[in-house]
Design a protein that fits this description.
alpha/beta, about 200 residues, five-stranded parallel sheet, single chain, globular, TIM Barrel, about 40% helix
């Protein structure tokens, strides 16, 4: 059993504060934003520990929405608000919180919807990042990620790329071929509509 779909500290903050005000916080109130994100990080850790305790020995990680196993580790977090931050804002405000929340569970696992390839270098600054997730087919997300930046950014890093490529089998195969190169740690996630497929 997977933990629930955990939102990153910044995503969680977006449920508490009007998004316009939240996105102005790095400029208007940077110390207040850091304090809020730190508090939310502590609350997320406590919440996850409680979930893991309740799930018991059937736990699979990194969690909901990721390829998960009893042999995997880390904590998966959705971090969609990052798309609206500048790269240096992400590194200053959110990356340390992602690392903090992931640390007790074996590392951080990152997800964002949409094409987040322009932010790969910022995401890679999350300490103890063990896996990233992205959409690589239009059936998964109409604003899919191109393969090349992920190959360039993650080959040889030991960070796993969890590539969601929903669609016909040939779509998943094509995406796997574009994403694979020596030194790449890759999981291609799809689903089949029929047993024959």
């Amino acid at each position: 059993m997977s933990p629930s779909d955990i939102q990153s500290p910044m995503d969680t903050a977006s449920y508490l504060i009007d998004i316009n005000n939240l996105l102005m916080s790095p400029f208007d109130n940077p110390e207040g934003l850091k304090k809020l994100l730190d508090i939310l990080s502590d609350l997320l850790i406590d919440f996850m520990k409680k979930q893991i305790e309740m799930i018991g020995d059937v736990l699979v990680l990194p969690g909901h929405g990721f390829a998960a196993s009893r042999n995997f580790g880390g904590l998966g977090m959705s971090d969609d608000v990052m798309m609206m931050l500048l790269g240096d804002q992400y590194v200053e405000f959110e990356a340390p919180c992602m690392a903090k929340v992931g640390e007790p569970f074996g590392g951080a696992v990152f997800h964002s919807c949409g094409n987040w390839s322009p932010k790969i270098s910022a995401v890679k600054k999350i300490q103890n990042l063990i896996m990233v997730d992205g959409a690589f087919s239009t059936e998964t997300d109409p604003d899919l990620n191109p393969a090349e930046p992920f190959v360039d950014g993650f080959a040889g890093t030991k960070i796993i790329v969890n590539a969601r490529a929903v669609g016909e089998a040939d779509v998943a195969i094509e995406k796997a071929q574009k994403l694979w190169k020596p030194g790449m740690k890759l999981i291609v996630v799809t689903y089949c509509k029929t047993p024959d497929e």
